[in-house]
């Protein structure tokens, strides 16, 4: 019989931790690659498909792209600064789950290719910075929302947020009628 409880907590072996760090940094870089791949696909869509949301509480494609770039530029670097500075502090840094809606405001007036370039331009240095963080810093505790985690968990949360946002866009665009025909 296999003891599945042993997988409840990830291994803390140095080689395993190094592999996790490398994998997470690689996954962080995925957003820049995805933005490059999305460019030609989104450029072929009618303007309304990237400038309008299907319902008021959802973000447009442009708002989502701007929000992802803003997180990389304005939110995550400050979090990393606090984590690195928290070394001897008994208080773990606490971060609120970001509100992507506020970060996407004004995006629909921007050029789509500019937004995609911004996503790539912001993510590449963020991934490089995370790659340079010393291994001992990755274990420092922090809180995101109500969840206690470390930098491994935070990096995974960022990757999951990216994937969830892009998956939502993909499903929405896949199910939309984006043909050029006149509706009548």
Automatic annotation (TrEMBL):
Domain of life (superkingdom): Bacteria
InterPro entries named in the record: DinB/YfiT-like (IPR034660)
Record protein name field: DinB-like domain-containing protein
